[in-house]
# Entry
Amino acid sequence: MEIARLDFAEGLKVKKIKVGPMLAVVEVANLPKDVEEAFKKEKLINDVIILAVVKQLNDSKKKVQEALIDFDDEFQPSGDKNADEDKIKQLNSQCAQICKAQQGVAESVALKKWQEYVSRKDAWKKCQIKFGCKIAFTSIGLGVSVATAAVSGGATAVAVLGMAKKVYDLGKEVYEFAKSISAVEDNIVTIAAALSKHYGGPSVQKLDWKANAKEVVNMLVQIPGFDKGTTALKDKLTQHRAKLGQLEAKAESAHGQASQMMKKLEEMEKTTKGTVLAEKAKALGQKVDVLLDKASDLNGTVQEGETFNQTMTAMNEQFIAKTDPKIRPLRDVVEYVSAAGEVAGLAKDVFDLATAIAA
# Structure
């Protein structure tokens, strides 16, 4: 015969886990007919035994709910569904142990109160009745929002990793291109400096360039390697402009991929809010934000490279025309490598963080 029941999960408020009904039922068996009728009718039995059992069940309910609330408060979903479910399995095991212990407590309370009661009822002292408590423990699972976050977060993490890999590859290419452009600019400055030395030599500069234009041309043409130097410089400048275009395209591509990644990370932060994955997405987003700034800075150096190319092209055209005695100043080599190195380094950091998130 059932004498008390209580749902341990009733009124439970948790956010990250899902807890089904947890019904505790206390029964008494081996009751003689008159004792069974007494349980149903006698207020004293209700007051002494049943109320004591109900009180104990409420105490047990409080202990179970406190354990579940503590777990829910401390549980930080990782965004990895398998890892989170392993923690939930541990919680299930712990709750099952708690419930088993509370079953024994409820049975002991019922038996003790019964013994106290029958000590005053000689007719029932020989009754060998049994009290049993069963707690129908249903398994605890991940909350819907957490489970959804793990699935959507995991898919987004994979997409972010793909973008990060592209940015990383582009970062390495950008760095190599930057080094090659710097080498070309060194060659350009070296060739231009040699030509400028001849062009600005005393024997050439002392001539009247307007009155003796032909003599100026002949004198420069006769300088060994002068015209070949202007041809070589022109080729280097053409090569330089092409490399600048490629560097700019790769920097813009890296910037575009990083911008798309930022959108994905913002999406991940929203769908995994309150989880460890959201914190990782935020940290990665901050790193990507710096990368975007550095990619923009690199585009600024490309613009400096364009100015370098225009200045040196104008100088070479002056060497070829041989009509203007004024020597143009040489341009300094643009510092691409440090800017590209920062982009490449940040791209590597981004890729490492994205890999950790998707793992």
